[in-house]
Amino acid sequence: MTSDQDLPMDGQSVTAVFDAKGIDVTANKDRGVIKVVKRQGLDGDRPMIGDKVTVHYTGKLLTGKKFDSSRDRKESFCFNVGKGQVLKAWDIGVLSMQRGEVCTLLCKPEYSYGSAGNPDKIPPNSSVLFEIELLRFEGEMLTDDGGIIRRIKVKGDGYTNPNDGALVDVHLEGRCAGQLFDVRDVSFTVSEAEDKGVPLGVDRAMDKMQRGECCLLYLKPKYAFGSEGKAEFKIGPNKDVVYEVTLKDFQRAKESWEMDVHEKLALAAEVKHKGNQYFKAGRYHQAVIQYQRIIFWLEMECGNGMEQLKRIQEFILKAHLNLALCFLRIKEFSQVVENCNKVIELDECNEKALYRRGEARLFRNEFSLALADFQLVLQVNSSNRAARAQISICQSKMKEYHEQDKKTYTNMFQKFAERDAKVGKTKRRRDESVRSSMNGEVGIKRRRKSQDCPL
Description:
The chain has 455 residues and is of the alpha+beta class. The protein is built from 11 helices and 13 strands. The chain has helices at residues 11-21, 70-73, 88-95, 200-205, 261-280, 284-298, 306-329, 333-346, 351-363, 367-380, 385-452, and strands at 23-24, 33-39, 52-61, 66-69, 77-80, 102-107, 128-138, 140-141, 148-154, 167-176, 179-189, 214-219, 241-251. A hairpin with an 8-residue loop joins β1 and β2 (33-39). α5 packs antiparallel against α6 (284-298). The protein is flat and about 90 Å long.
């Protein structure tokens, strides 16, 4: 990588070099950020808005004085580009770079530290130089499991996003292995995109988008068409897909705090019905979203009077029970236990909650806890034959694991004993060898002594 030694170290000369060799990378071409490429990057795409980028950088005044450097700290720097997390000049400059590229940016004050500067480092109204190396970049993860990755092609307008229940108008283009399979304009309600055949991942990305935004969504099978695939689009099971999504317009729904209790209860009944339909169709992730909406709306409500409070608690209890059943189906057993615990807080003798918690614990090999849950089920309903069967399974598994542990420890102790015996045998051989050597030396000394004595 080249250094800055070839740059003259006074303001006017530096500016002249950039005027002669540099490229204006600002959108309105006001020469606020001028770029000189010092090392070309790899051919390929550039970062998109929202991408997580990793860079090395060195910041200098036009006099050549260094004021900051990631290289001196021996630590690269990461940020989401185009999101206003760094200097405006950085967002503009890094979006113009390729992977592996090294460039120097001449940044005017309005694109860097402004009229205030930076106390003790950068004088007011100072232009600055940044040498930046783009090490790598990757899309923005919208879920903790990395199942939805977003890369923004065109930034949207405004500061509002679609919320839960909003009506959105989008343009979709779906691709699988590079093949276009879905092109359409479609309107749907956020959290209910399944009704229009729109993948879960697109639905989940809506509340992160702005009006006019165009982005690429990289969806893992869980957020696309799952293990079933999509025969309509000739998509096989467990396939990753990419959707290009343009949010043309949206109408926000009422927020929870804008609705009264009657509205929330009416919506809860509709959403519960929709969740049940998704569940019966095997769309468990979509069903989860519906049941979680009910809890979000009602968990902080007390209602007006005991009758309304009872209805609220009934909705919440059933939502948690249904969530536990969904999470059992998709094998997220910690979530099963968590939702069953919520039910048991409301109704400590709830047979279904105790049984489903026992099932989850059995799947997690927590046999003693599972056994306790199934025994509690029998205390509530002694004729529950399924619980009796599960108790037998728990006892069998516990016995099997005890036998396995016993065998493991027996083998372990046997190996220890064999090792100790081997060590002891080796030690005895060594001791015998030492004694034999000592006896030999004593015999030699005696013979030597007898030879040295006078006759």
